[in-house]
Amino acid sequence: MTSLPSAQTPLNQHSLIAFEAWLQSLGAERSKRDLCSWILLMPSWSAVIQLEQEELRVTWEKEGLTNQRCFNYGLPRSDIEAAIKDGP
Q1: Torsions phi, psi of 74, nearest 5?
Q2: pLDDT of residue 3
Q3: Using one digit for the tens of pLDDT, what is the confidence trace for 33-76?
Q4: Considering only CA atoms, which of 44, 42, 8 is closest in space to residue 28?
Q5: Is the distance from CB of 26 to CB of 84 less than 8 angstroms?
Q6: Does 3 reside within a domain?
Q7: Which of 4, 31, 44, 81 is geometrically suited to a Cys-Cys bond with 37, CB 3.0 to 4.6 A?
């Protein structure tokens, strides 16, 4: 398993291997249809995490409703992780 940088390290300071290891540690799985998308399934909601060129886009779905936010790669990993885990 790849060791991750400090949780306060911005995502743009992570290697691609560390970035993918972080997504896996969240429980996300890479989409088979789109290699830049990761799927996170939680008991009461799901999320699609998309690696965009300028930002990380997260789209949550719960009970048929969607909510989307974009996160700058310059934000600390811990802040983005907290927002993702907070859910819709």
Answers
A1: -80, -5
A2: 82
A3: 999 999 999 999 999 999 999 999 999 999 999 999 999 999 99
A4: 42
A5: yes
A6: no
A7: 31
Tokens of 16: 């691609």
Residue 65 placed within a domain? yes
Q: Which domain holds residue 35?
A: 11-86
Q: Does a structural domain hold residue 6?
A: no
**Tokens describing residue 76:** 């600390």
Number of domains making up the chain: 1
Residues 11 and 47: their CA atoms lie apart, in Å, by 19
| C-alpha triplet 70, 45, 27: angle, nearest 5° | 75
Over the stretch 5-16, which tens digit does the pLDDT of each residue have?
999 999 999 998
The C-alpha torsion from 2 through 5 and 10 to 11, rounded to 10°, is: 0
Token pair listed for 47: 């999320």
